[in-house]
Amino acid sequence: MKTAAILWSLSLAFLLLAPAQPSSFQKAIAITGVSVIDANGSVRSDMTVVVLGDRIAGIGKTGQVKVPGGTTIVNARGKFLMPGLWDMHVHIAFGDWVPSGKEAALPLFVANGITGIREMGGDLDTLLQWRAEIARGTLVGPRIVLSGPMLDGPKMRFPSSVAIGTPEEGRKAVDDLKAKGVDFIKVQSFIPRTAYFAVVDEARKQGLTLAGHVPDAIRASEASDAGQKSIEHLTGVFEGCSTAEDDFLNGNKGPKRFLETYNEPRARALIARLARNRTWQVPTLVWERGQWLIDDIDTSRDPLLKYAPSSWRNKTWPMFTESIIKELDTDDVTIRRRFVQKELEIVGAMHRAGVPFMAGTDTAAGVDVMPGFSLHQELEYLVKAGFSPYEALQAATRNPAEFLGLQDQMGTIEEGKLANLVLLDASPLEDIKNTSRISAVVLNGRLLTRADLDLMLAQAESFSKSH
User: Fold this and answer.
1) Average predicted confidence (pLDDT) for the chain
2) Which whole-number Å values give the CA distances from 252 to 239, 267, 320, in the listed order?
3) What are the phi and psi torsion angles at 262 (to 5°)?
4) What is the pLDDT of residue 249?
5) Under DSSP, is residue 236 helix (H, G, I), strand (E, B) or coil?
6) Is the pLDDT of residue 299 over 90?
7) CB under 8 A, 24+ apart: contacts of 425-429
8) 364: cis peptide before it, omega within 30°?
9) Integer Cα distance of 410 and 419 in angstroms
10) What is the mean pLDDT of residues 22-29?
11) How far apart are CA 278 and CA 272, in angstroms?
12) Is residue 267 scored above 80 in pLDDT?
């Protein structure tokens, strides 16, 4: 067994570290006989998709598409092809709170069909290095869109953050991060009101998108009107649906008061505003459930724990648990269960009203959240909230491409787009749980078979035992 484990590790190390060949020299891939999940939710059967380099070079009925000589043929009859998935809220390099992202999180993402991530607060230099290695092909990992450190209040609560106490500090932070190469700006909950609006103004001047929490001193309606492009974790939403919103700006809020003061007319007005302004929502429902019910969920027998580094299990997660129980989960658990259900209801109401959504998990910051695997759970929660399976898929494929302004490159399976694809053994349109039945992944044109993906999982498990 030890010999086999060593051979597996060596094989995977070669897979992860071997430089990718230039696109012009890569062998073409043809996925034949496959059912392609189309951009409009229909399924085109018996199709062939040809990949050359990192692009989709051709799509058509099997037997009618030209397949170059020497092409690697993937017989996919009976299988389903969908675009690569995005997790639009992750933290993978978060100081000493969430170490080992390179060895643990990156392979778990790819093994779960996640070919793109939006990093919502992390160590900038580390993330830029990983992104460069992924682009060179010397590291297997998803495409990374990043904010670098989060902009928080004068007293920082988290690593990978910048302390902001004044408008001048907010503007300087935006300018500094722009110069260092971030893709957008992430705001946290404690940034002061005047500093927040300075950050909004400076980000606009610098051409940077603003995303993150609705700060405690700001109304969700104000953040939406100011142009904050995405709101995470439903922050500010329940406050804005409440008759006690003014009081909540000064603190003293939580599930019990949110439920007691919920007001349907106020909710309809806020939802209409979010839809009108196209303020994207990333509700991170898997994280929300794990947070509000942290003392009501038994994770001790979770088979996915084998992929979590011991540092997460023995240090990070116990620290999170203690803090959450002390500061957040102070209402009775029966009330918190009702609130988690209410979150599903309000997500459904926003979706029906036309508020745009993306799927994100807040991995690996939660005890019941695991890189890669939890995105499939998030899609299940979106379906429970009222999304169709296809609409849930859009939240992790087409919608992120639209949000990022990359519709011409990704999000759907079309000729000329990047070859980030997931081959499934069953249709996710029949059952959203089928997104986890992965047969193969094409990552930037590189074919990763089920055996390759299993090697990546085995290596992540082996790493977790000693770290």
Assistant:
1) 93
2) 11, 20, 21
3) -60, 135
4) 94
5) coil
6) no
7) 425/78, 425/79, 425/80, 426/80, 427/35, 427/37, 427/43, 427/80, 428/37, 428/80, 428/82, 428/389, 428/393, 429/37, 429/41, 429/43, 429/389, 429/390, 429/393
8) yes
9) 8
10) 60
11) 10
12) yes
The amino acid sitting at 347 is V
What does DSSP assign to residue 436?
Answer: G
Task: Write the single-letter amino acid at 135.
Answer: A
315, two tokens: 């240090």
Confidence of residue 89 (pLDDT cuts 50, 70, 90): very high
Distance between CA atoms of 361 and 108, rounded to whole angstroms? 14
CA distance 416 to 398: 16
> Given a cut of 90, is residue 8 above it in pLDDT?
no
Q: Which residues pair with 82 in a beta bridge?
A: 422
Give φ, ψ of 463 to 5 degrees.
-65, -40
Check: CB of residue 93 under 8 Å from CB of residue 101: yes
Per DSSP, the chain holds a count of helices (H) and strands (E) of 18, 17
* Residue 271, SS3 per DSSP: helix
Taking only the tens place, the pLDDT of each residue in 181-239 is 999 999 999 999 999 999 999 999 999 999 999 999 999 999 999 999 999 999 999 99
Which H or E element spans position 86?
A: strand 85-90
Instruction: Return the domain boundaries, the chain.
Output: 85-403
Whether residue 286 has pLDDT greater than 90: yes
Q: Right CATH number for 85-403 from 3.10.180.10, 2.60.40.3710, 3.30.40.230, 3.20.20.140?
A: 3.20.20.140
Does 19 score more than 90 pLDDT?
no
Q: Which residues pair with 424 in a beta bridge?
A: 80, 438
